[in-house]
């Protein structure tokens, strides 16, 4: 029977099945300081051990400072959480990349960077943006802390099989339009809960043309469409990215792996429960106007009115979002003054993202009214950017160049916004209060964020000389 | 853990779709390393007018005197979307909620709820609307949940709901999911034997 990619990876990991109740094996377990302490404590309470510390990797990313490498830089509660992680890793023999380590960074940036994530693997983490790793054709999804404990103890998870959705994007993206705009356009089309209960496979010529980093940006925000995971079939781009990375197979193992990876595509006759089609040429730079990522429009469109929404629930949501965001229906986004810009997060903090932002930053200076920060996704990204001189470009233009971490994506450190602040952000969530109580977040691509920093309001990057 | 099968209580109507986990429990409360004590921070930004939680927002539905003792949360579609933080169900159960009724839930939140003996009940939009009408007309109206029978009743209304048999079983019996899985240890050993070298 013809199978899709999800079904192939799923079946290759079935340990046990009892009716619809499946036990699947987990190849990689990534952990960080926020969602692991209670799982370690639970384990201890029951006198259980981490079954496969060799398949478990830890980093510090959420609760750390981006100004200082000191563990105590963000106060005693954050420090306790970080020390707890260090101690738990030590006690259980788990590899940890702590603050200051050359391989430390946001969990979803370092996993791929180290070659830990490979096609056909199952990957979990107590973090919803684990979906990022689907870019490699790995089945990767976020789990809660009870499930983290379950994986610690058994290296497996109980799961029901999800439905499948094909999202096909064909054609060629216009200049100034990025992977971030593709995924925002997809979420805008299917809605914030449009893929609930599904695993998405992204395909089509526009997806095939993307780099690994762009694929990670797309898969990263799969969760913002409600899906459990997003997948992209591995191809030559994937293989080239992985070759010679630290944890990638070597020698004969590499050859065997590549041979297997090449079988990881959906069969021609494979069935999906839902199919969605987009045309790349029609996608423009996207900006969210509301308080969930599905509330998004192209930069040149007017902000929608509650009356234009398809049902009462969405009318109420729209009305509430407009009030929170302090904007009017019909307004142009270019009229909105931005006083903060955040370039970073597991969505857009890789080297290609920083290069794209630097191309724009080179064109001018950060507006007087704007505070703009650039937070690389990992120590390795930071080092690479510095080798390329990107840090100088940002600093000369008036951006702050920070240490790697989650930073203002969710503000568990001191990178938080104040009530009423309006931020152009390359992160993934524009929820109320996400970046600070009463703060207003607009999600955009790195180039769009950099452009907003220079102009103090949203501009269409396609109209900037030297970009398009 | 003790199981949950029958529950009767009043409901608080949170008339909003897409309630995300950042609203349920904001990030500043995620720095704790324990599982308890999150209830007082539940819906922090909506529930309090100040950061120190000393001034309750009188307009927020949870603060209305008639809903103070509610043990069922009635809400709209896509409840619990966003981050995977299990602090969300921890804060809801610590506050005193036993069940949540909504037309749909985000996947991770749903699984986290099951793992914390918090019963997520999916009803249709129309059924949820009918319950909203009942609760908004009379805050004291009792809602009866019978998990074995997979039913929700309120006065003359009775609705059936779907739930995965494994989830139902583990909620009713309050099972230790890890303990159950560890009984399958031999299968896990066998599987590990079969993993090729390049996928170790
Ligand atoms: S960068 Fe943001 S979304 Fe990504 S892992 Fe960190 S907090 Fe989560």
TrEMBL record, chain A:
<dbReference type="GO" id="GO:0003861">
    <property type="term" value="F:3-isopropylmalate dehydratase activity"/>
</dbReference>
<feature type="binding site">
    <location>
        <position position="409"/>
    </location>
    <ligand>
        <name>[4Fe-4S] cluster</name>
    </ligand>
</feature>
<feature type="domain" description="Aconitase/3-isopropylmalate dehydratase large subunit alpha/beta/alpha">
    <location>
        <begin position="7"/>
        <end position="456"/>
    </location>
</feature>
<dbReference type="Pfam" id="PF00330">
    <property type="entry name" value="Aconitase"/>
</dbReference>
<dbReference type="InterPro" id="IPR001030">
    <property type="entry name" value="Acoase/IPM_deHydtase_lsu_aba"/>
</dbReference>
<keyword id="KW-0408">Iron</keyword>
<feature type="binding site">
    <location>
        <position position="346"/>
    </location>
    <ligand>
        <name>[4Fe-4S] cluster</name>
    </ligand>
</feature>
<comment type="similarity">
    <text>Belongs to the aconitase/IPM isomerase family. LeuC type 1 subfamily.</text>
</comment>
<dbReference type="InterPro" id="IPR015931">
    <property type="entry name" value="Acnase/IPM_dHydase_lsu_aba_1/3"/>
</dbReference>
<keyword id="KW-0004">4Fe-4S</keyword>
<dbReference type="InterPro" id="IPR004430">
    <property type="entry name" value="3-IsopropMal_deHydase_lsu"/>
</dbReference>
<dbReference type="GO" id="GO:0046872">
    <property type="term" value="F:metal ion binding"/>
</dbReference>
<dbReference type="InterPro" id="IPR018136">
    <property type="entry name" value="Aconitase_4Fe-4S_BS"/>
</dbReference>
<keyword id="KW-0432">Leucine biosynthesis</keyword>
<comment type="function">
    <text>Catalyzes the isomerization between 2-isopropylmalate and 3-isopropylmalate, via the formation of 2-isopropylmaleate.</text>
</comment>
<dbReference type="GO" id="GO:0009098">
    <property type="term" value="P:L-leucine biosynthetic process"/>
</dbReference>
<keyword id="KW-0028">Amino-acid biosynthesis</keyword>
<comment type="subunit">
    <text>Heterodimer of LeuC and LeuD.</text>
</comment>
<keyword id="KW-0411">Iron-sulfur</keyword>
<keyword id="KW-0100">Branched-chain amino acid biosynthesis</keyword>
<dbReference type="InterPro" id="IPR050067">
    <property type="entry name" value="IPM_dehydratase_rel_enz"/>
</dbReference>
<feature type="binding site">
    <location>
        <position position="406"/>
    </location>
    <ligand>
        <name>[4Fe-4S] cluster</name>
    </ligand>
</feature>
TrEMBL record, chain B:
<dbReference type="InterPro" id="IPR000573">
    <property type="entry name" value="AconitaseA/IPMdHydase_ssu_swvl"/>
</dbReference>
<keyword id="KW-0432">Leucine biosynthesis</keyword>
<comment type="subunit">
    <text>Heterodimer of LeuC and LeuD.</text>
</comment>
<keyword id="KW-0100">Branched-chain amino acid biosynthesis</keyword>
<comment type="function">
    <text>Catalyzes the isomerization between 2-isopropylmalate and 3-isopropylmalate, via the formation of 2-isopropylmaleate.</text>
</comment>
<dbReference type="GO" id="GO:0009316">
    <property type="term" value="C:3-isopropylmalate dehydratase complex"/>
</dbReference>
<dbReference type="GO" id="GO:0009098">
    <property type="term" value="P:L-leucine biosynthetic process"/>
</dbReference>
<dbReference type="Pfam" id="PF00694">
    <property type="entry name" value="Aconitase_C"/>
</dbReference>
<comment type="pathway">
    <text>Amino-acid biosynthesis; L-leucine biosynthesis; L-leucine from 3-methyl-2-oxobutanoate: step 2/4.</text>
</comment>
<comment type="similarity">
    <text>Belongs to the LeuD family. LeuD type 1 subfamily.</text>
</comment>
<keyword id="KW-0028">Amino-acid biosynthesis</keyword>
<feature type="domain" description="Aconitase A/isopropylmalate dehydratase small subunit swivel">
    <location>
        <begin position="7"/>
        <end position="125"/>
    </location>
</feature>
<dbReference type="InterPro" id="IPR004431">
    <property type="entry name" value="3-IsopropMal_deHydase_ssu"/>
</dbReference>
<dbReference type="InterPro" id="IPR050075">
    <property type="entry name" value="LeuD"/>
</dbReference>
<dbReference type="InterPro" id="IPR015928">
    <property type="entry name" value="Aconitase/3IPM_dehydase_swvl"/>
</dbReference>
<protein>
    <recommendedName>
        <fullName>3-isopropylmalate dehydratase small subunit</fullName>
        <ecNumber>4.2.1.33</ecNumber>
    </recommendedName>
</protein>
<dbReference type="GO" id="GO:0003861">
    <property type="term" value="F:3-isopropylmalate dehydratase activity"/>
</dbReference>
<dbReference type="InterPro" id="IPR033940">
    <property type="entry name" value="IPMI_Swivel"/>
</dbReference>
<keyword id="KW-0456">Lyase</keyword>
């Amino acid at each position: 029977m013809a199978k899709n990619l999800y079904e192939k990876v799923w079946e290759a990991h079935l340990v046990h099945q009892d009716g619809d109740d499946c036990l699947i094996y987990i190849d990689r377990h990534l952990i960080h300081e926020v969602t692991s302490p209670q799982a370690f404590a639970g384990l201890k309470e029951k006198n259980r051990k981490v079954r496969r510390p060799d398949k478990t990797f830890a980093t510090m990313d959420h609760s750390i400072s981006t100004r200082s490498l000191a563990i105590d830089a963000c106060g005693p509660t954050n420090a306790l959480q970080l020390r707890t992680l260090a101690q738990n890793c030590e006690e259980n023999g788990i590899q940890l990349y702590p603050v200051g380590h050359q391989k430390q960074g946001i969990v979803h940036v370092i996993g791929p960077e180290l070659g830990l994530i490979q096609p056909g693997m199952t990957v979990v983490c107590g973090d919803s943006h684990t979906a990022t790793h689907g870019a490699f054709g790995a089945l990767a999804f976020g789990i809660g802390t009870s499930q983290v404990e379950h994986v610690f103890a058994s290296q497996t998870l109980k799961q029901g099989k999800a439905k499948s959705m094909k999202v096909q994007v064909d054609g060629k993206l216009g200049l100034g339009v990025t992977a971030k705009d593709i995924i925002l356009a997809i979420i805008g089309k299917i809605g914030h809960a449009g893929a609930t209960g599904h695993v998405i496979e992204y395909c089509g010529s526009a997806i095939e043309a993307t780099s690994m980093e762009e694929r990670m940006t797309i898969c990263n925000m799969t969760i913002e469409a409600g899906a459990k995971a997003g997948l992209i079939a591995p191809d030559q781009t994937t293989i080239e990215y992985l070759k010679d990375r630290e944890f990638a197979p070597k020698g004969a193992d590499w050859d065997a792996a590549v041979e297997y990876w090449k079988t990881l595509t959906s069969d021609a006759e494979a069935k999906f429960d839902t199919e969605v089609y987009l045309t790349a040429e029609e996608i423009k730079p996207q900006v969210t106007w509301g308080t969930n990522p599905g509330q998004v429009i192209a930069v040149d469109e007017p902000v929608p009115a509650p009356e234009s929404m398809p049902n009462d629930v969405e009318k109420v949501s729209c009305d509430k979002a407009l009030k929170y965001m302090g904007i009017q229906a019909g307004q142009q986004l270019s009229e909105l003054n931005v006083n903060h810009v955040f370039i970073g997060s597991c969505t857009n903090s890789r080297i290609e993202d920083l290069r794209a932002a630097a191309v724009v930053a080179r064109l001018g200076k950060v507006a007087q009214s704007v505070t703009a920060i650039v937070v690389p996704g990992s120590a390795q990204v930071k080092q690479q950017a510095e080798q390329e001189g990107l840090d100088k470009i940002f600093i000369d233009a008036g951006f702050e160049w920070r240490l790697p971490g989650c930073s203002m994506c969710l503000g568990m450190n001191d990178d938080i916004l104040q009530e009423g602040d309006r931020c152009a952000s390359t992160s993934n969530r524009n929820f109320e209060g996400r970046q600070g109580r009463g703060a207003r977040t607009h999600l955009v691509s790195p180039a769009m964020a950099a452009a907003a920093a220079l102009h103090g309001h949203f501009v269409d990057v396609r109209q900037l000389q030297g970009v398009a | 853990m003790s199981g949950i099968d029958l529950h009767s209580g009043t409901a608080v109507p949170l008339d909003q779709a897409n309630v995300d986990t950042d609203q349920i429990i904001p990030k500043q409360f995620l720095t704790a390393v324990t599982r308890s004590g999150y209830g007082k921070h539940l819906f922090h930004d909506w529930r309090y007018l100040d950061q120190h939680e000393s001034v309750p927002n009188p307009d927020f539905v949870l603060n209305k005197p008639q809903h103070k003792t509610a043990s069922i949360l009635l809400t709209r579609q896509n409840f619990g979307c966003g981050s995977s933080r299990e602090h969300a169900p921890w804060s809801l159960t610590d506050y005193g909620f036993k069940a949540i009724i909504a037309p749909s839930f985000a996947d991770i939140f749903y699984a986290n709820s099951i793992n914390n003996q918090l019963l997520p009940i999916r009803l249709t939009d129309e059924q949820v609307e009918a319950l909203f009408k009942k609760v908004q007309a009379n805050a004291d109206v009792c809602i009866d949940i019978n998990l074995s029978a997979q039913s929700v009743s309120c006065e003359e209304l009775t609705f059936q709901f779907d739930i995965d048999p494994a989830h139902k079983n583990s909620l009713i019996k309050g099972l230790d999911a890890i303990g159950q899985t560890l009984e399958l240890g031999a299968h896990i050993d066998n599987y590990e034997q079969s993993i090729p070298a390049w996928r170790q």
